[in-house]
Amino acid sequence: MLKLDDPSLMKTQSFINNEWLSNKQTFSVFNPADNNVVAEVNNDSSAEVEQAIGAAKQAQKTWAKKTAIERSDLLMAWYQQVIEHKDDLAKIMTLEQGKTIKEATGEIIYGAKFIQWYAEEAKRVAGETLPTPSNDRRIAVIKQPIGVVGMITPWNFPSSMITRKAAPAMAAGCTLVSRPASETPLSALALAELALRAGIPKGVFNVVVGKDSKAMGEVLTRHPDVAKFSFTGSTAVGKKLLEQCASTVKKVSLELGGNAPFIVFDDADLDDAVAGALASKYRNSGQTCVCANRLLVHASIYDAFAEKLAKKVKQLKVGNGWDDDTAIGPMINHQAMLGVHQLVTDAISQGAELLTEAQTPNEHSNFYQPALLKNVTTDMSLAKEEIFGPVAPMIKFESEQQAIDIANDTRYGLAAYFYSRDIGRCYRVAEALEFGMVGINEGVISNPMAPFGGVKESGIGREGAHDGIEEYLETKYLCLGGIE
């Protein structure tokens, strides 16, 4: 049984208006490492979502009237609570999501940094005074909170995906209703408990949990009192939610799928590129939207890079996230693991070569051995689909332009990476890649101070940086006449 220093962080009920609401209907949360049930959680429905929206609406105007400094202080208190309890929060995450305890701790700190950053940004929201067409007028531009925010977050980063949305919304003066993935609700509920302890007023931060994602999502996207909707997840689901938001013309932020190219040019530092590929591809068992999805390697260094990377991949230990030497934890569930295995077997049947250990999936296990494949072609499903697992396909290219063309040949445009020591090439390739984020000689690029988001079918809007708080603000133009 999980032992927490503070067992009261293990919450299993929806959090609405600073109250924990009981419900006789529950659903099970499983540990993907052993498939054991770790908690029975409220199976709430659209009715609770509507209740939470009502609480958020009632609280919003009062929260918006607080000074920026007051909101900043409350967010900073929440940040301090999260940092103080980071070890327990990491344990909860490893239990329900499966990632290693080291990665879980890293995510808690990373997520807390968004609260800290936007606690500071709350004091920096500013307007403008503009030139006027005549002397009897003055023009001013002010920024105001958009109102109630609905948000849906995924299971792969169950803490930081919430703070990355909630912190800027709250800093701007918005209240919110968060619906976490049903695979990982415990991390979200623990954050709610810490928000309560930090003194966040009732109705400002609400969390609703339940299995009926379709019905709950319909309320968040169609309800007239929700002014802004934010979603992180698959492109297919994001498109559907965007359609639903159109019924009330909501402001929308979407962070959707990716198919990140990782390009290694012939002038790259191979050891650095191998380290970057490992960090980008295999963290969180390959279950991140910005993972390197396709390794594009110049023909002249293709075999040397493959040999170096294969050696490192074979050293990655697969196991329970609690073990200190585990590098690859379980995938989120058995269906996800089988989907990844199907992509691998399909590629091998078409001529791809597996450079790492082959495996036959265990029907009772969610673990998948990290894999590296060479001789992958661009028409294989492994190169076209988002893998979302610890599998890296290697594709050969001959020229800079060919690498760019292959990289851009996708409907996604979230993240891209490349390694080169040619300064001219760094500028040319970075500008030519059709992606919202580009890592140059770097495999891990996300941080609270930089705008996170994609182009094409990878989403709308940005999270992080100053851009992140703008997503929750409305611009109002004031024309003052009769001055003379």
TrEMBL record:
The active site is at residue 255. This is Succinate semialdehyde dehydrogenase. GO terms for molecular function: succinate-semialdehyde dehydrogenase (NAD+) activity. GO terms for biological process: gamma-aminobutyric acid catabolic process. Keywords: Oxidoreductase. Residues 21-477 form the Aldehyde dehydrogenase domain. NCBIfam families: SSADH. The keyword Oxidoreductase applies. InterPro entries: Ald_DH/histidinol_DH (IPR016161), Ald_DH_C (IPR016163), Ald_DH_CS_CYS (IPR016160), Ald_DH_CS_GLU (IPR029510), Ald_DH_N (IPR016162), Aldehyde_DH_dom (IPR015590), Aldehyde_DH_Superfamily (IPR050740), Succ_semiAld_DH (IPR010102). The keyword GTP-binding does not apply. Gene3D superfamilies: Aldehyde Dehydrogenase, Chain A, domain 1, Aldehyde Dehydrogenase, Chain A, domain 2. It holds the Pfam family Aldedh. PANTHER family: SUCCINATE-SEMIALDEHYDE DEHYDROGENASE, MITOCHONDRIAL. Belongs to the aldehyde dehydrogenase family. SUPFAM superfamilies: ALDH-like.
